[in-house]
Amino acid sequence: MSTPTIAKSLSIDRAEQNKSLPWDEVIDELLRIRILKDDWDGEGSPAPEPCIVDGAIAFAQYFVATGISPPHRAHAGVNGTIYFEWYLPQGYREVEVLAPDRAESRSILAGVESNETIHIG
Q1: Do residues 113 and 104 lie in contact, with contact meaning Cβ atoms separated by under 8 Å?
Q2: Residue 111 in 3-state DSSP?
Q3: How far apart are CA 45 and CA 70, in angstroms?
Q4: Nearest-5° angle of CA 51, CA 88, CA 59?
Q5: What contacts 86, CB < 8 A, 6 or more positions away?
Q6: Which helix (H) or strand (E) holds 51?
Q7: What is the pLDDT of residues 78-106, one digit of tens each?
Q8: What span, in angstroms and rounded, lies between the C-alpha atoms of 49 and 17?
């Protein structure tokens, strides 16, 4: 995996870290997402494929290994993807897992929007 700039922007202070989910709870949530069925939200949204969930778990493991603070939220997207979200004092960051080995990072930090593609493998 290339070293994404995400690591630099996701170091958060202790007060914010206390509001984040512990990584084990994030993994538990991903495992719950893995058993969703289509129309899980009552609006016809497709469930994330198991390989997408496995990819999200691999990204979570990478984030843990590189010291990235846990997200404030992890959830299924309405288009069959998975999101990690961080609400930071300087703005917002999300990572959307699109494929088992690919995610897109979007942020609005200090009023500046940026995008980055992250690959595993």
Answers
A1: no
A2: coil
A3: 26
A4: 20
A5: 10, 12, 20, 69, 71, 72, 92, 93, 94
A6: helix 50-65
A7: 999 999 999 988 899 999 999 999 999 99
A8: 30
C-alpha span between 74 and 22 (Å, rounded): 11
Torsion angle of C-alpha atoms 121, 29, 75, 104, degrees rounded to 10: -10
Around Cβ 5, how many Cβ atoms within 10 Å?
Answer: 13
**pTM as predicted:** 0.84
Closest by CA position to 4, among listed 82, 63, 79, 70: 63
Fill in the amino acid letter for 24.
D
Q: Where does 72-119 show beta strands of DSSP type E?
A: 73-76, 82-88, 91-99, 102-109, 112-119
Q: Are 40 and 32 in contact (CB under 8 A)?
A: no
